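Hi there, hope your week has been kind to you so far. Do you reckon you could talk me through the fold, stretch by stretch? I've dropped the whole record in just underneath, so have a look:
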Amino acid sequence: MKKAGILNRHLAGALAELGHGDGVLICDVGMPIPAGPRVVDLAFRAGVPSFAEVLDGLLGELVVEGATAAHEVRKANPEAARLLDERLPELAHVSHHELKVLSAGARLVVRTGEARPYANVLLRCGVFF
């Protein structure tokens, strides 16, 4: 058994399969999950695990070369907007509708227990070399 890092076997396995350019959508409980991508649903109850916990955990495991969030997050969820701006300084913003369209191309969807609006981000995997 692993003693550090991500212990969820479904998530650990999905992360190991990602390659350069693959998309990973981290989403709240309200985001529609597109058909097609692998889904790891971590939601236990409202707020658990939080968007921040999942984002920080994944950023510790992945090389990210780009990220996109909905511009609506700035007004509707300032806490999530601050978190995203701090963790992802090159963050791009699109409409929530466009984020839903883009998420259909993700290879992996990780659903958090977050129950506040627009706590969603689409990460684009980079390479470590």
